[in-house]
Model the fold of this input.
Amino acid sequence: MVDVGATNFESAEELVSRASVVFEKQFDCKPNVAACAPGRVNIIGEHTDYNEGFVFPMALPQVTVYVGRKTSTGTCRVLTMAENADEPKYVEFSVPTSDKPLTPGKPTWANYVKGVVANFKGDLSSFDAVIATSVPLGGGVSSSASLEVATYTFLEQLNPAVEQVSQVDKALACQKAEHDFANMPCGIMDQFIAVMGQKGHALLIDCRSVESRLVPLQDPNVVVLVTNSNVRHELTGSEYPTRRKQCEAAATAMGKKSLREATVADLKAHSSSLDKEVYCRARHVISEIQRTEEATAALENGNYAQFGKLMLESHNSLRDDYEVSCPELDQLVEVAMEVEGVYGSRMTGGGFGGCTVTLVKAEAVGKAIEHMKNKYSGKATFYVCSPSDGARPLKIDKDI
Done:
C-alpha cells in the first residue's frame, strides 16, 4: 500500500524472527513451536456483549506471537518483549496441579498467561516461551484477549496429543482466564474474534446464543482506519464493573433477564423507577444493540453512508449516555467527520482513551490522516487495517 501517513507494524513472521533471536539468547536453544492471535477493532456494538447483545468486530493484522518449546522441568519460564508491559518482563511459575493451583499476582501481564494455563483443557507440559506483539497495549484493541488466545493456541501446538476443544470452548476458556486472573468481567467478544476472525470478513456475534456469522468486508474502495489517541486507559478500576452492575439493575427493574430483551418503550415505561444514570446506561445499550443489527444490514447492502451514520450515533451515545469517551476521542471523531470521504467514526473498545475506528473511502484515507494529525491536540498513530485471520499456528525454523 502507498504510504498515506499510516504507521507500519511488524508482520507475524517478523515478530517470530525477532522473538526467536531473543529466545535463543535467553534459553540457550532454539524455539520449535510458534503461534499467534490478533488484536481486534469493534466496528460497532460497544458495551453490548455483557448485556447479551450483538457486537460486530473484525480481527486486526496486528498480532501477539509466541515462540517456545516444551520442557520437562515442571517450570514454565516466560519472557515478554512488549515495551509497555509492567516489570518484571520475565516470570517463572510451576505447572499447576490440584494441590498447587496458579494464582494471580505481579507482574500484571503474566496474569493473562497464567490464567490461560490454569484454564487449558487437558494435560500440560512445562515450557519456555518468548512473547512479542504488534498490538498496542492499552489501546482499546484488546491486547489482553490477543495475549490470552495466543497463549492457548501456543499450548495447543505444544501439546498436540491433547484433543483440541471447539472454537467456542477455547474462547470461553480465555474469557474465564480474564475473569479469574485479571479480575475483569469482560463479555465474550474479544476472545471470540481473536479465535474466529477470518480474512476479508467482520464477525457478527450474538452474545446471547453465542452464535456468530461472518460478514464480507472486502470492498477495495473502502478502508477501515484505526486511530490510536495514545491516551492509555486501565479498565480494572471501578468504571467498567459499575456500568455492568447498572445495566443489570436496569434489566432487573424491567423484569428482564438482560437488556437484550428490553425495548426503548420498556425503558420509557420504567423511567420513573430508575435512577437517571442507570436509565442513560440502559438507553445506550438498548439503542446500540439495535444499531448493530441495522449497521450489519447496511454493510451487506453496500450502504456505507447509513453505516457511517450509525457509527456516529454510537459514538454520541457512548459519550453522552454511557459516559466512557474522553475529550481526545471526541476530538478525533469530530475532526475525522470534517473530511470529505469519511462515512463515519466512533470510539472503539472499553473507552477512557484508546482508539477510534473510521470508515473512509480508500481515495480519501491520506487526506483524513493528514487532517486528523493537524487538528488533534495530542500525537495519534494511524493504522490502515483490513479484516484479518484469527488465531493460528505459525511456521518456525525447527533446525536445532
About this structure: The chain has a mean pLDDT of 94.
